[in-house]
């Protein structure tokens, strides 16, 4: 009897651990098979010419949190605007309740201060959400996608095109499941798949001059870098390739525990991306921003939408 009980306990404890380990290994293996070509010098030169292009970019902040090291982590979305009034959103941020929950997790795990919550992207846009002609995601973690539902509410359910490269549309792992569900559960979202380009890495977003995207990988299977040609500069939206702008420029990776166990990442690809993006940032009138670093956004001249 005692042996039977012991076997049951072993199975009850061991089975979830084995399943978790299998998912972790699977995620690492998949990411190592996703190292797409990076944009060539010719493609990058081509980005700087052509008619149109967005005339401004603003940051819509869902929430802000001071970390234990004194730096600030921010969450939200980037709003690109064209001269004719059309807008495009990169990332959807979080709801108020989601931001509070996310903040409490960072308090517990990293000793951060309580989060300041400013409201969802949709709530802050209000009627201006109707000007959106599309939305894109740097990746599908839920702190980037959760606000899509309230964005739909601000648009009174009017359809909104979700622009995705094939890797993001087709691939994911257990870390992106929650974010994908939040995004695809938003009632106005209609997938608009960008076919993989026949030549080069950058795919232009149809109908929006001066905006392109390329498959990055590294952080998640569908991680995507967007690039926008503003009147005075190129801006590269790097998502969570790093969490701090200085880490990108200094080629500092995330902790081993984070990249190996918490959020499985392809650290070799991230090293390549950090070096490549740091080189882009060093070019004249070219800025790279990462999604959670408020200081880096300010240095890139990105306006604060509400404040």
Q: How would you describe the overall organization of this protein?
A:
The chain has 307 residues and is of the alpha/beta class. The protein has a single domain (43-300), classed as Ribonuclease Z/Hydroxyacylglutathione hydrolase-like (Metallo-beta-lactamase, Chain A, 4-Layer Sandwich), CATH 3.60.15. The chain is 37% helix and 21% strand. It has 12 helices and 13 strands. The chain has helices spanning 2-32, 41-47, 96-110, 121-125, 142-145, 148-154, 166-170, 177-184, 245-249, 256-262, 267-281, 294-299; strands spanning 56-66, 72-81, 87-90, 116-117, 132-136, 160-164, 189-193, 203-204, 211-215, 224-229, 234-237, 286-289, 303-304. Strands 1, 2, 3, 4, 5, 6, 7 and 13 form an 8-stranded mixed sheet that branches. Strands 8-9-10-11-12 form a 5-stranded mixed sheet. A hairpin with an 8-residue loop joins strand 9 and strand 10. It is globular. The model has no long low-confidence stretch (mean pLDDT 90).
The largest β sheet comes out as: 8 strands, mixed
Percent helix: 25-40%
| Order of helix and strand elements from N to C terminus | HHEEEHEHEHHEHHEEEEEHHHEHE
User: CATH homologous superfamily, by name?
Assistant: Ribonuclease Z/Hydroxyacylglutathione hydrolase-like
How far is it from the N-terminal to the C-terminal residue, by CA? 67 Å
Silhouette: globular
Oligomer: single chain
């Amino acid at each position: 009897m005692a042996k039977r009980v012991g076997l049951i306990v072993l199975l009850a404890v061991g089975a979830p651990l084995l399943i978790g380990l299998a998912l972790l290994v699977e995620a690492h293996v998949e990411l190592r098979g996703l190292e797409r070509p990076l944009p060539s010098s010719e493609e990058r030169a081509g980005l700087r010419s052509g008619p149109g292009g967005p005339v401004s970019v603003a940051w819509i902040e869902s929430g802000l949190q001071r970390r234990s090291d004194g730096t600030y982590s921010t969450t939200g979305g980037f709003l690109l605007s064209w001269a004719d009034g059309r807008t495009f959103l990169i990332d959807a941020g979080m709801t108020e309740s989601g931001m509070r929950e996310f903040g409490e997790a960072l308090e517990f795990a990293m000793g951060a201060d309580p989060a300041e919550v400013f409201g969802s992207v949709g709530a802050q846009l209000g009627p201006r959400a109707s000007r959106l002609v599309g939305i894109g995601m740097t990746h599908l973690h839920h702190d980037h996608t959760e606000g899509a539902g309230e964005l739909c509410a601000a648009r009174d359910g009017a359809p909104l095109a979700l622009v995705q490269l094939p890797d993001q549309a087709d691939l994911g792992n257990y870390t992106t499941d929650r974010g994908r569900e939040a995004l695809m559960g938003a009632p106005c979202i209609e997938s608009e798949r960008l076919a993989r380009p026949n030549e080069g890495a950058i795919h232009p977003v149809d109908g929006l001059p001066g905006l392109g995207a390329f498959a990055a990988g590294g952080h998640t299977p569908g991680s995507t870098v967007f690039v926008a040609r503003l009147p005075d500069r190129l801006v590269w939206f790097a998502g969570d390739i790093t969490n701090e702008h200085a880490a990108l420029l200094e080629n500092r990776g995330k902790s081993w525990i984070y990249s190996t166990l918490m959020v499985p990442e392809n650290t070799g690809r991230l090293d390549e991306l950090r070096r490549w993006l740091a080189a882009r940032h060093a070019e004249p009138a070219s800025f790279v921003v990462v999604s959670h670093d408020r200081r880096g956004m300010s240095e890139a001249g990105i306006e604060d939408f509400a404040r």
